[in-house]
Amino acid sequence: MKHWGDLSQDAADHMTAGSVLDHAELAVVVTDRFSNVLYWNPFAERLFGQAERPAGAERAAPSLGIMEKDHPLAIELAKHVLKGGVWEGTFDISRADGSIIYVRAQAVPLRHTTGSVTGIVITAREAMRSNEREKDRFGLLERIGERLAGSLHVGETLSRVAEMLVPQFADHCFIELTEGERLIRKVSTHVKGWTPPPGTWKPVGSDIRYPPGHYAEIALRRQETILVEDFAQSGYPAVSEASSRLCGEIGMTSAIVAPLCARGMTLGLMYLGLSNLTDRRSPHYDAFDRDFVGAIATRVAIAIDNALLFEEERHTAESFQKYLLPRALPQLDGLEIAVRYEPAAPLASHGQGIQTQVGGDWYDVIPLSAGRVGIVIGDVEGRGAKAAAVMGQLRAALRAFAQDDKPPADILARLDEWTRVVAAPDDDAFGVGVPPIVTCQYLVYDAWSRQLSFANAGHAPPLLIVDGTVTELDISEVGQPLGVSAKGMHADLVYKEETRVLPPGAALLLYTDGLLDRRPARESGDPQLSYDEMLGALREQVAKVSTESVERIADAATDAIPGEIDDDMAILVIRSAGKELAYEERTFPAQPIMVGEARRMAAEAFTGWGVPEDSAELACLLVSEVVTNVVLHAAGSSVPRRELIMMDGPPLPFDESWDVPGLDNDVVNEKEFTLRLRRGDESVWVEVFDQDLRLPRIRSAGENDEGGRGLYLVDQLARRWGSRPTKEGKAVWFEIPTRR
């Protein structure tokens, strides 16, 4: 070398561009205009943790390990640079060994000699592992904040924290949260391939107690970030002898402990440690690292606090919804039942915590008289505490109204009036009160006759499943939603009762609109389906499992529509029995001598059904009491005016019209009662029908009275009893258990 800067031929041969890039401690990646990797240097291979690209092979830039959520960022980089700009930013990289690191990258255009952009040159380095740590710091904090904001579940938040910090910033990460006066370890994460031996460092779930003077105890007490720059030059007390011995074995070199504080409260500690388990440029933390970890801890604490608040709200919401809906379904004869309820996903939809966890959808199954059952599906528009509160009140009111055993149209008419009271209108943008839309369908099913009576208040018709065919239940009259009809309008003008007979083994699928109100998943790119398309998909999936159990049908319906639930959803599936249920029915003249005949009929039926003797005797006794009550009141009741027959000749005066010769005898002879007996798995039901409109009531018989105790005996000895009006008069019923 004759002059400064002159190179020998041998040195010049080693100063080629390729040789320089091979020795550079900086990742260099070159791509074409389509983001196919044309070149990368050895450092890039080590940084991205990818296998060496075979000669002549092409690799798309996102396959370098850029995490899926950052693919839009990579696309933005390419678009910007191919237009001639310069791009700089931070990527999350998933390496082949499963570790995740942050990479700071700068991209510039690769130009042809003509000046046109032919590709992209990317230089990259691991963030916080260069001399530009201050420059990287703000970008990394922003990225960490974004990742933490993506979760509102404590467990997921903590796992993301550990994933971000190990192995990039630490070999060991512990996170402990306070629970009352205790400090509980929630995270114990270490470099890949190493776990602490049993009996050394305490595992997740352990109660952690740091001795006084320990650097973690100081951080918790002072609420400040503590740096242990070099364990070889410090003398803090050890947590335990086994812990101290393990620290020596793995060569613990440095640690940072940061308190997790949010809203003036200390939530716990975050502990980061370095050891000789990894080969790092610097095995010790410094003051810059301490400040940076303190800033990270602040964001982690806020994320944990948000997650804890959300989980508390979610628990409150789930408890709220749990106790508003039926906690257990009754066991009913001749009917299989399955139900499902799904709240709208809060993160996938609106992210408003409790506002999206509860809603106004509900279902109910109500045991009625003599084994009959009331079936309800309803939906209060909207979601949140108000919708759930309105739903809870309507469900309770409908349950109370249903006990009157009136027709479904009358029940909905009463519920319509009640809705005006509990569902106060909300003012719209113009100050006009707009009541919430409440839809409901109420059905009454008799498993012995297979008769289904129902009325509809603006709700979607259920699906009828018969012999593998799925169709909508034919509903001629769909009434208006509850609470919106004109006041004073008679129930017959608003809600119409209809009756169908279900074939043996037929099923009904009742659902709320949340089942079909799905939107495509954000990552899928699928188009939004129309209502008819979603209904068609639902029918198709249900038809595939139509012969399976009601639970399987409910599952298939829940999963039939692809996409995310945008509203809460309720499903109720019922199936009629495939065999006939045992019953006997006979009509008798309303004469005292028929009491014994009725009892004899009941005794023969109970014997034929194999009813236990004590239950049969008790039922026969109560049959005598109820029939006697019916016969006595039928004989003493006046003739209803509607029974009067017009006769030839001039009209009679009103008083004389009741004294037509022979009319009393004709009418008395027409009086009769019907005894109906039903056999269930665990009970027998007895119903007595007559034409008297007066409902029975328990009398208080005097000490010397000969009568007045019949219904008192029924009330005391039967499991349940009651009466209900019918189109011809009334029915008195009671239930006797056959299993003790």
Automatic annotation (TrEMBL):
Any one GO MF annotation of this record: phosphatase activity
Listed name of the protein: PAS domain S-box-containing protein
GAF domain sequence ranges: 153-314
Protein origin, superkingdom: Bacteria
Species of origin: Sphaerisporangium rubeum
Keywords (A to Z) from UniProt: Hydrolase
Entry-linked Pfam families: GAF, HATPase_c_2, PAS, SpoIIE
Keyword DNA-binding: no
